[in-house]
């Protein structure tokens, strides 16, 4: 047997064995009480108290009524510590989230232009930088490295001191890192529009730009390590595991993928999809799930359903995800054993995905009425549902029989958007609505705009994903029919591409509403309702009236 086959097979067997040993160790109580671990995000006496700063005072009362009566008091000292932790992370988190909003708007504009060009190919072609071949990679990199990365890091910087119950250490490193990362994305997009590209999906930025991103990302991760050393908690909540893993995995992935001249030919294609898939699964997924595991329990006021199940989800992701990208190369000039092993690990991903799905669903079970009141919960629960859909769909797409139809079609594009937009972006939307009142000490000035944003992006994305999936499947069926000319597979997609642009237009409008509302909050426009959201949790005790937000 080939040595490479043996090595990869052993890697898989070790991963599977390690997961079984981990499950056994939890059953023996080696990781402590799951109940204790799940409750570390709550202060003593805080369980039963809802928390959603995106709501005004009336909305919070309605949410509390929906969840039942709250206990009389929470621990005043720990709540004061939490408020101090929020202050320490406010500046770097605000900088990252502001830059995320800027890139969200630009990414939406470029994405809509690229979508329109698919059914209006002669529109805006007089300038080279406006052609589809430059607009589309600019959109992808803006969304991935601009909006998603800044949003994820901003939320991570805000969560870390809360989860570790201490002040954020090294905020200045995060600020310098954000500046370098922002400069890298700006220069990278300019290079792509000028025609300077490395030519691989997710790796289009020229290598000099990659240096800025690597240095910036490393600096933004420094506060995690420094704050961990100063933590005031003995047990690390599962969200810390996800955040630490994502902030450690991504620099390794990015560095290996971008070393100039290291990968050539077939090896380069293999590395491309190793990186492309892992950027989603080992960078954005950990950041998104870390946020979901914190905000869902905090909003409903009760711990996660099964803490041990959350740990299985984390380690399942760590053990099985790293090699799933190979199924994008089915039919390519790569060894069949490599593709087969990728398919096997793709199917094994069902384990952590179901662990997350069951956990999140059961946490909200019996309290779905809270979705009517909490905008944070509405966005994040929908996002986690789409995480389950995207992940199971991805496992099925790895099967050769399904891949034969979906490969090289718009179906794959729809699938990618369900993961990166439907899951990650929706979770980030909800998280930003939660944290911004804590960061600014100012409530969202126009609550109805939150609802408008939700319905615009939900309906728009529903149109986008459903119709593009149908059109992509029909495209694949047409390409497999040897009796039909290739142009039939192009013509059959046109109505679905127009639906994609309609959905994308609604999503872009929703993003403009979101960005405008964000700007109004930061600039303190709108009704003056300062302090109510920022101090609502402290008023439970009646002992901290003198604390200022």
From TrEMBL:
InterPro entries: Cyt_c_oxase-like_su1_dom, Cyt_c_oxase-like_su1_sf, Cyt_C_Oxase_1. GO terms for molecular function: cytochrome-c oxidase activity; heme binding. GO terms for cellular component: membrane. Keywords: Electron transport, Membrane, Respiratory chain, Transmembrane, Transmembrane helix, Transport. GO terms for biological process: electron transport coupled proton transport; oxidative phosphorylation; respiratory electron transport chain. The chain crosses the membrane at residues 6-24, 92-114, 142-161, 173-196, 211-229, 241-262, 274-295, 307-324, 336-358, 379-396, 416-436, 448-470, 502-523. Gene3D superfamilies: Cytochrome c oxidase-like, subunit I domain. Coiled coil: none annotated. The keyword Transmembrane helix applies. This is Cbb3-type cytochrome c oxidase subunit I.
